[in-house]
């Protein structure tokens, strides 16, 4: 910064790197934003509250009261994402701005004394292998049931977040689950059709993920 305080720190190597934006304060350790090459990033308000949070699935934008203003999914999860991203621009302070245009176009700009530096911290990251479903040939009845219950539990957690963000119930009742959960529910049903299981169990799993 013009004050002499450190504004931006880059760490890591060619395989993984991070960018940290610090506040313009003397001897500060206050972080205003953290961007990582694995697709995870967070921006904070000046008081330390979360402003924007992004992952390999998508992101959300919160106001200063903690209410979710916007949520989106990256198009790498589906040719037709449930909630696409509308471009976002925020100013962390008078010198540092963040522009979010796409998963691989997340720009951090620093402007001071007539000079500018721009960093693209976007990346095209697919959902990790740990969140993918295994092939049908490796799954038995117990495994299919566990996967179905896992998706159902994640759906319930998402509805709980909706209840907290929209206490009136008028809006969260209409909200659909995140696209990655919808995709996993569909994949489980496809695995059930391919697996050697009874029609009764297949119907039970369908009821669990579609409840």
UniProtKB/TrEMBL annotation:
This is ERIP6 protein. It comes from the Eukaryota. The gene is Erich6. It holds the Pfam family FAM194. Residues 1-174 form the FAM194 C-terminal domain.
